[in-house]
């Protein structure tokens, strides 16, 4: 009897212990989820509204004509996609450095980092300007349709002001995100989007200014975003992080440029994948219809990608902050919570696209042949959206931890050595057209996802925290005297 009672008591004790563990895990997950959503929600809204500036432009231009929509789509997906990737990538070095500096308590360095990034992105914009100027001959050199290329060339010259807006915008965004100060940025972006809709209605629909009106609307809207954010940063709302312009911004540029280039290459390889797919579709028969159809689907897919980029920003900030603070276990747990949350939302969007595949193309075109072709790509769009609910989160982990070079190498292998050749083979050799090209793109996604998951599972997070500490010492400049920190039993640091 005593043995039985002892056994029952032991079981009760074990159940109580298990119950306590479950409660701790649930509470920890809830706390991490709140931290993640505090960053992800405004970042998500900002990404969606800023991307929607281009979507609104396409929607208004799509009702002008097929050639006009194809021209704008090529500029947005090829020229601006190329430039957007470079600028976002160059600005993303700030995401690693600012995030880790905040975690380490060196907020005073954020203003210097921001000025260094502005210097680098400004010079980069100057070098990229000829791409806009010579868009028409470049597209014809790539064997794109002559009429589309000429119209795209005019439109790209008209939107050059947006290039310099990107150069200012992305560094400011990373500066604000690292400090989890993004709600003002969100409000500015929402206001600019609403104003952009009004401008397009006035200039494109009422005044019938065509592509010129659409370009003017886009230029004004993007500079409203930049000027609003710049005022927020420079007007004294960040007394510790922004102490004014300094010549220190022009020191230690070599290491900063190196990390900026690594970030740019990582993101460009990702965004240029879409660009090359658009170009490959442009080489098919009836390019106007094919480009219009895939552009409609990609606009929608990229719009949902902006949702995932909210989680990308959140996990980048969380990982960089925790590694900078010497808390590797917390960084790893944050990744698990964010991936699971993004995946659930990705499944919901995937179902919505499948259900509405015959209806969503009507938002962008009134041409039955374009609507039908875009509807046929509904399942491919849904599959891409599902995969993109996970990949951006893993890319955010890479930026937060400073793995940009590794991810760039993985992208080269999965996208350019496997994905594009498979797409070309299926699209041209086996005559599957757009579906074949898109299948190759999906193959590249799946391979990269598998490799990144393996990298994450094999990561030594304690070692990554040490690397973050060394990175801050290298580029952080003179440090104030800080109390020493030691790792606790969980592998995290306590002060």
Automatic annotation (TrEMBL):
Topology in the lipid bilayer: Multi-pass membrane protein
UniProt-recorded Gene Ontology molecular function terms: antiporter activity; xenobiotic transmembrane transporter activity
Keywords: Membrane, Transmembrane, Transmembrane helix
Compositionally biased residues, Polar residues: 479-495
An individual GO BP term: xenobiotic detoxification by transmembrane export across the plasma membrane
Chain positions covered by the region annotation Disordered: 473-495
Annotated TM spans: 39-62, 69-90, 118-139, 151-170, 182-204, 211-235, 241-257, 264-283, 303-321, 333-356, 376-394, 406-430, 436-457
Compartments, as annotated in UniProt: Membrane
Keyword Transmembrane: yes
CDD domains: MATE_eukaryotic
Entry keyword annotation includes Transmembrane helix: yes
Domain of life: Eukaryota
Any GO CC annotation of this UniProt entry: membrane
InterPro entries referenced in this protein's UniProt entry, alphabetically: MATE_euk, MATE_fam
Annotated family: Belongs to the multi antimicrobial extrusion (MATE) (TC 2.A.66.1) family.
Designated name of the protein: Protein DETOXIFICATION
Organism: Jatropha curcas
């Amino acid at each position: 009897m005593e043995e039985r009672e002892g056994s029952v008591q032991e079981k009760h004790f074990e159940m109580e212990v298990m119950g306590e563990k479950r409660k701790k895990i649930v509470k920890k997950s809830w706390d991490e989820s709140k931290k993640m959503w505090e960053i992800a929600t405004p970042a998500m809204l900002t990404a969606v509204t800023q991307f929607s500036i281009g979507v609104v432009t396409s929607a208004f231009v799509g009702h002008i004509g097929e050639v006009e929509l194809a021209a704008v789509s090529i500029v947005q997906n090829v020229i601006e996609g190329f430039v957007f990737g470079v600028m976002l990538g160059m600005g993303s070095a700030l995401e690693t450095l600012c995030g880790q500096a905040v975690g380490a308590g060196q907020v005073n360095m954020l203003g210097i980092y921001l000025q260094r990034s502005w210097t680098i992105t400004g010079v980069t914009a100057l070098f990229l300007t000829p791409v806009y100027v010579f868009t028409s001959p470049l597209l014809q050199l790539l064997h794109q349709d002559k009429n589309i290329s000429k119209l795209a060339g005019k439109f790209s010259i008209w939107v050059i002001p947006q290039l310099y807006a990107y150069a200012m915008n992305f560094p400011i965004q990373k500066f604000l995100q690292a400090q989890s100060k993004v709600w003002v940025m969100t409000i500015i972006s929402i206001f600019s989007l609403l104003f952009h809709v009004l401008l397009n209605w006035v200039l494109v629909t009422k005044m019938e200014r065509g592509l010129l009106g659409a370009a003017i609307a886009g230029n004004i809207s993007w500079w409203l975003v930049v000027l609003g954010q710049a005022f927020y940063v420079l007007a004294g709302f960040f007394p510790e992080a922004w102490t004014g312009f300094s010549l220190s911004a022009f020191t230690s540029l070599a290491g900063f440029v190196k990390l900026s280039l690594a970030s740019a290459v990582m993101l460009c390889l990702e965004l240029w994948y879409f660009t090359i797919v658009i170009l490959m579709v442009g080489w098919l028969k009836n390019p106007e219809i094919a480009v219009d159809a895939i552009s409609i689907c990609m606009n929608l897919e990229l719009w949902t990608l902006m949702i995932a980029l909210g989680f990308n920003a959140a996990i980048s900030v969380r990982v960089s902050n925790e590694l900078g603070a010497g808390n590797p276990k917390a960084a790893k747990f944050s990744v698990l919570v964010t991936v699971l949350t993004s995946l659930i939302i990705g499944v919901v969007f995937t179902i919505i696209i499948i259900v509405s595949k015959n209806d969503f193309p009507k938002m962008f075109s009134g041409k039955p042949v374009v609507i039908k072709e875009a509807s046929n790509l509904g399942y491919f769009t849904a599959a891409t959206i599902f995969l993109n609910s996970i990949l951006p989160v893993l890319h955010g982990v890479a930026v937060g931890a400073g793995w940009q070079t590794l991810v760039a190498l993985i992208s080269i292998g999965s996208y350019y050595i496997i994905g594009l050749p498979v797409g070309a083979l299926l699209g041209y050799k086996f005559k599957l057209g757009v579906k074949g090209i898109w299948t190759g793109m999906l193959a590249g996604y799946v391979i990269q996802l598998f490799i990144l998951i393996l990298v994450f599972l094999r990561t030594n997070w304690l070692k990554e925290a040490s690397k973050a500490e060394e990175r801050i010492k290298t580029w952080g400049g003179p440090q104030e005297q800080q109390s020493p920190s030691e790792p606790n039993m969980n592998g995290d640091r306590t002060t």
